[in-house]
Write a structure and sequence with these properties.
heterotrimer, A mainly alpha (343), B alpha+beta (554), C mainly alpha (315), A: mainly alpha, MetI-like fold, two-stranded antiparallel sheet, elongated, disordered C terminus, C: 315 residues, mainly alpha, 12 helices, 0% strand
Chain lengths: 343, 554, 315
């Protein structure tokens, strides 16, 4: 992977003496001179990246934790699709929304490892089940944001000219608004609910990918293999799809991974402010907002456990993200992914 | 000893010499003055009674303004700025004003001020406070006024209690009440730091000083009031800290940062009672929580369905889980606070016949109702609520209960207050596909529990009949009862009206409210809970009600 | 291109951004359902005349581009109108709360810098040791912790159990010692994520600098380690840190919105959230605009600073 000459803001950056910008264009993959040839030049690179990732123990640990949390969320309660029970296992001992199954505000015990909340609901079951919301919101919101941001940014970077200018100005304008503030305004406009929440997060989140990939595309576009492909008569779309984007995508992947954590935190914050999902939903952030009232009364378990779940999840995602970055872009600035691009 | 002037107090504060914690004890460190630190659950938004639509603003200026008469803790009308209110005929009442009363700006109270106060309500958001009954006022002399009503109006005296008297200059434009309230009350407005605090200081020239007795109005029973009440309010400064979160209020109270929490969470009461340092004062209030049905939208257009839903409201579970066991289930609109107009047995009867929690009976009713309408369950709908914690919680419990049946698939929508009010009071609220969770505050008169919610003329957007319930018999009963002065007669009329309303079930009644305050035992002495929200701080100093509060201890 | 020309060019480039920001702010609020007229009228009988006069007052019947221009004109004269929910002017409401948020944000920023940067330097210098690994974990934890959760826990421990700090803001001006004492917890909460970020940034920036030729040269010349680090490495590392720091403005406001709620601190964040929910349009427009402008200006300053500090930049 070559060193990115751009500083993440789309500007050229000149390094001083002794910088080790090993320009391993050569190892960027054997350029496909024949525009019609099928085998991707990048499979090699991904395999090597995976090997690097595997060696990073913290990252692997993070991945393991996320895998476990995903499994717990999936198997928490049975899943029914159109009347057919697709997943019958119920790891959570109680229905997360069943109120009154136990006295309210009971401290952790054998029957209720995380205690009960104000409505006599089992907090343990709710925390397990709540993983579904956080995970799905995180993955879906980031996924959709990628679907919006990557094409826009790639086209902007490749096409240049007024297309580039327009998109980038739009990005600049949107960047001026603090993330959460914009999300709150959008939720206020469109209302609450799962898809509206996701929509708000996507609307605010796509910009970082657009900007990132535009920068990458700008640099990759000047590479030899791209020029060669163009000389051979390959169409712009094809070039974008098969040569430019695959080579430029790595930083975006890193950003996306890290952003899952940011999105989960933001969704939790919105839930905490009462702007997330329906009241009473077993989403970790919403559970924390209900927990606000209990701190003083001493019912610490209502606050500690959901917060711990969020913390664990986001921490693991960050470890994975760091690992992905080290694997794909080992010479990159540690935290250019966390700074202006971090949304 | 000369009292602290406002400017000197400000100087002290800015120099950091005072702190809320230090003054929570008795006769604080700032010398002469004693201070009570209480709370408000929201910011004060208006100082002018004609503009104040929220109870927070009203309770904030409650001690600054006074009315011609006031209603005490038992519902009796007591003379305040008026020494007598005598009925001349069906529509005319003669008001005799107290002499020697002055406003905080120094001007004297005369009949001209009273008339100006009434008339300036025209065209304001609170117009109906006065113009529901007021026709004209004739000034006979500086201290006598004849008020003419547009029709005989039974709650006239009680209504007078809800009209704070302002100086005539406010009507002529010489005085701008939007910069601060100016009244005759025992406390004068000092400062308001938005979102932080609202402060009142003792009015040293309050008319009660030196007047040891305050008699009742002629037609409300025997006995003298005002015995033992000091000439001047014992507390010099009242600082209301604006603390929105109930839990923060509680934390501040326990830490000693405040003396009185005005809205402690109901489910904390049990714990608080165990704490010797804190006293909890609780009183059945005039209000109820309910679930309103959009009558124009099937299946809620069907009476059986409505009763079925009403019978699925888990009232006791709600009281236990949300309100810490405090309060009682509601089966009819008029609060038991009005002992003259309702009774325990009547409420039980209404419950048995129409509203009490009974899942089996509910299922039968729903089955029948859905079949009649030819709708196949489950029916998808929502419950709309605002952010009030208790309301959100009981709505959740109702939703869960409804979802446990196969007839409904209910989701909950929570909105901020203004948006919520906009939805509930919208002209087409009865056609919306949502049940509305609402809390209603009545007053001392039974009409206030019925008219705005159940009279056809009060259908949204006029006022608050969000269901658009329209029943000729009920309308007639309510209108008649308003013009009848005899209590027993009115009671019969209201009972009939309630029977009809409860049977028709345009709403499901949930719970009668309670008012709760928690305060530090050693710093607050003599405080009592007033059953109506807008008069929450009445007990701080109300000679006409035999009530006063001091900061206790040394 | 000289520095001056760069600054000029960069400044000119912000103008279209500011224009876009104003359009977006205006448009976003227009999207909010309902109008100020609806709010005012919901408590009284809406006669057609009253409704018409209110609509005229808010220019609601004009074409949208005219509404925008009227609004823009007012804004440039710093007239933000009156609040919908009360009679007070928007500007007064903002001025009331601006110091609170600025002090909280500034305090948090200071904590983040003072904790994050030295930790990062130490971690880089002692690269590979337990200290380094430990700080990396702690920094990651700082980033992963939901700030409102942290705030709640801190209140629980220090406010309720240990009773070291008041649970509600004291009644004192914002610069009084009691207020600043109260602000420690919220500032720490708000600053934690930024501190973690600074730690990591500084660490990587310093690490990279330590790899440079000139460090080896300096060491070979016999300069002691401390001088090398402080005089050269640090100064060069701070370039990237400083520019990122300027960008934290937006980040801190996001945090402030939540933290002010947790600690009942009467700042701009609370005002904004309330106003959005209440459809108090003038307030929303004013605050969002203010914040966005602040962010744009901060970015501009950051770019200028970066250009000025790093002589190797080719602009």
């Amino acid at each position: 992977m070559s060193r990115n000459p751009l500083d993440g803001r789309g500007r050229l950056r000149v390094r001083g003496f002794g910088s080790h910008e090993a320009d391993d264009d050569a190892s960027a993959g054997t350029a496909t001179v024949d525009a019609d040839a099928t085998p991707s030049p990048t499979t090699d690179r991904w395999r090597r990246a995976w090997a690097r990732f595997r060696r990073d123990r913290a990252a692997v640990a993070g991945l393991a934790v996320i895998a476990v949390m995903t499994l717990l969320a999936v198997f928490a309660r049975p899943i029914e699709v159109g009347g057919v029970v697709v997943q019958p296992v119920a790891l959570a001992p109680y229905d997360p929304s069943a109120s009154g199954i136990a006295p309210a505000y009971r401290p952790p015990s054998l029957a209720h490892p995380f205690g009960t909340d104000w409505a006599g609901r089992d907090v343990f079951s709710r925390v397990l089940y709540g993983g579904r919301y956080s995970l799905s919101i995180g993955v879906i919101a980031v996924g959709l944001a990628l679907l919006v941001g990557v094409p826009l940014g790639a086209v902007a970077g490749y096409a240049g000219g007024w297309v580039d200018e327009t998109v980038m100005r739009l990005v600049d304008v949107l960047y001026a608004f603090p993330f959460l503030v914009l999300a709150i305004a959008l939720v206020a406009v469109f209302g609450q609910g799962f898809w509206k929440l996701v929509g708000a997060l996507v609307a605010v989140g796509w910009i970082s990918y657009a900007r990132l990939i535009r920068g990458e595309v700008l640099s990759v576009s000047e590479r030899d293999y791209v020029l060669a492909a163009r000389a051979l008569g390959a169409s712009d779309g094809r070039i974008l799809r098969r040569h430019v984007v695959p080579n430029a995508i790595a930083p975006v992947i890193v950003q996306a991974t890290l952003n899952v954590g940011t999105v989960v935190l933001s969704a939790a914050a919105l839930g905490f402010l009462g702007l997330g999902l329906e009241p009473g939903t077993a989403e970790w952030g919403s559970m924390l907002s209900a927990g606000r009232d209990t701190l003083v009364g001493g019912e610490w378990w209502v606050t500690v456990f959901p917060g711990l779940a969020i913390f664990l999840f986001v921490l693991s995602i960050n470890l994975v993200g760091d690992g992905v970055r080290d694997a794909l872009d080992p010479d990159a600035d540690t935290d250019r992914y966390r700074t202006r691009e971090a949304r | 000893m000369p009292p602290f002037t406002t400017s000197r107090r400000r100087l002290l504060r800015w120099a950091g010499a005072t702190s809320a914690v230090g003054l929570a004890g008795c006769a604080g460190g700032s010398g002469d003055g004693s201070e009570l630190v209480a709370t408000l659950g929201a910011d004060v938004s208006a100082y002018d009674p004609t503009q104040a639509n929220d109870t927070t603003s009203r309770k904030a200026f409650d001690l600054v303004y006074e009315s011609l008469v006031s209603v005490d803790f038992e519902g009796n009308v007591r003379p305040t700025l008026a020494t007598a209110v005598d009925q001349q005929d069906d529509r005319t009442w003669r008001v005799s004003l107290r002499e020697g009363v002055s406003f905080h700006d120094g001007s004297d109270l005369t009949a001209a001020d009273v008339k100006a106060t009434f008339e300036r309500y025209e065209g304001t958001p609170r117009e109906s406070d006065v113009f529901l009954w007021y026709d004209d006022a004739t000034i006979r002399d500086d201290y006598t006024l004849d008020v003419t009503l547009s029709q005989p109006y039974a709650p006239f005296q009680l209504s007078l209690g809800g009209v704070p008297i302002v100086p005539e200059a406010a009507a002529t434009g010489d005085l701008d009440l939007s910069t601060g309230p100016v009244g005759t009350g025992p406390y004068a407005f000092d400062t308001h730091e938005p979102d932080r605090l609202y402060r009142l200081v003792r009015n040293e020239d309050h008319w009660y000083a030196g007047d040891g007795e305050v008699r009742r109005t002629s037609d409300s029973g025997a006995g003298e009031a005002g015995d033992g009440v000091p000439d001047s309010p014992p507390i010099e400064t009242i600082t209301f800290r604006i603390i929105v979160e109930q839990s923060s209020q509680l934390a501040a109270l326990q830490a000693g940062d405040i003396d009185l929490a005005n809205n402690p969470p109901a489910d904390a009461v049990a714990d608080l009672r165990q704490d010797d340092a804190i006293t909890v004062s609780e009183r059945l209030a005039g209000g109820f929580e309910m679930l309103i049905f959009p009558l124009a939208t099937p299946p809620f257009s069907n009476r059986d369905v409505r009763e079925g839903v009403a019978r699925l409201v888990p009232r006791q579970e709600i009281i236990d889980a949300v309100y810490g066991g405090i309060g009682q289930p509601a089966y009819a609109p008029i609060s038991p606070l009005l002992a003259d107009y309702t009774s325990e047995s009547f409420l039980q009867e209404m419950g048995d016949e129409h509203q009490r929690y009974d899942p089996e009976r509910a299922r039968e009713l729903l089955e029948r109702g859905f079949a009649d309408l030819d709708i196949s369950p489950p029916y998808e709908t929502t419950i709309v609520t605002n952010e009030t914690g208790d309301r959100v919680r009981w709505s959740q419990l109702v939703r869960d209960e409804l979802n446990r049946t196969d007839y409904f698939d209910v989701s909950l929508e929570q909105f901020e207050w203004n948006t919520y009010v906009g939805r509930v009071l919208a002209g087409d609220s009865h056609r919306s596909d949502a049940m509305m969770a609402l809390g209603w505050s009545g007053g001392w008169d039974p009409d206030t529990y019925l008219r705005n919610m159940f009279h056809s003329e009060q259908s949204t957007p006029s006022c608050c009949n969000a269901a658009h319930y329209a029943n000729d018999e009920v309308d007639r009963l309510l209108d008649e009862a308003l013009t009848v002065y005899d209590t027993a007669e009115r009671r019969a009329l209201y009972e009939q009206a309630q029977r009809r309303i409860v049977a028709d079930a345009p709403v499901a009644f949930v719970r009668f409210g309670t008012r709760i305050e928690a305060f530090r035992t050693e710093s607050v002495e003599g405080f009592r809970t007033y059953p109506l929200d807008s008069g929450e701080f009445t007990a701080i100093y109300a000679p006409w009600a035999n009530a006063y509060t001091s900061t206790g201890g040394g | 291109m000289s520095l001056r020309r760069y600054v000029l060019r960069r400044t000119l480039l912000t103008l279209p951004i500011l224009f876009g920001v104003s359009v977006l702010t205006f448009g976003l609020v227009k999207l909010l359902p309902g109008t100020p007229v609806d709010y005012v009228l919901q408590f009284q009988d809406a006669t057609p005349e009253l409704r018409a006069s209110l609509r005229a007052q808010y220019h609601l019947d004009e074409p949208i581009w005219r509404q925008y221009l009227l609004w823009l004109n007012d804004v440039l004269h710093l007239d933000f109108g009156d609040r919908v929910v009360s009679d007070r002017s928007v500007r007064a409401a903002i001025v009331d709360r601006l110091p609170e948020t600025l002090v909280l944000g500034g305090f948090a920023f200071l904590i983040a810098l003072l904790v994050g940067v030295p930790t990062g330097v130490v971690a880089a210098v002692r690269r590979g040791t337990l200290l380094d690994e430990g700080s990396r974990v702690v920094a990651l934890a700082g980033i992963a912790t939901p700030n409102f959760w942290l705030g709640l826990l801190l209140i629980l421990v220090f406010g309720v159990h240990l009773n070291l700090v008041p649970v509600i803001p004291p009644v004192a001006p914002v610069f009084a010692p009691e207020s600043l004492a109260f602000l420690v917890l919220p500032a720490v909460t708000l600053g934690t994520a930024s501190a973690a970020l600074f730690t990591r940034l500084t660490r990587s920036a310093v690490t990279e600098q330590l790899r440079q030729e000139y460090v080896r040269t300096a060491r070979a010349k016999g300069l002691d380690e401390r001088t090398v680090i402080v005089k050269h490495v640090l100064r060069n590392s701070l370039v990237s840190v400083v520019t990122v720091a300027a960008v934290q403005v937006a980040f801190l406001l996001d945090g402030a919105v939540v933290i002010e709620r947790v600690f009942s601190w009467p700042g701009l964040g609370r005002l904004l959230v309330r106003a959005i929910l209440q459809r108090d349009f003038p307030v929303v427009q004013a605050v969002v605009l203010l914040v966005a402008v602040a962010v744009v200006v901060a970015n501009l300053l950051a770019d200028v600073l970066y250009a000025w500090l790093d002589p190797r930049i080719a602009y």
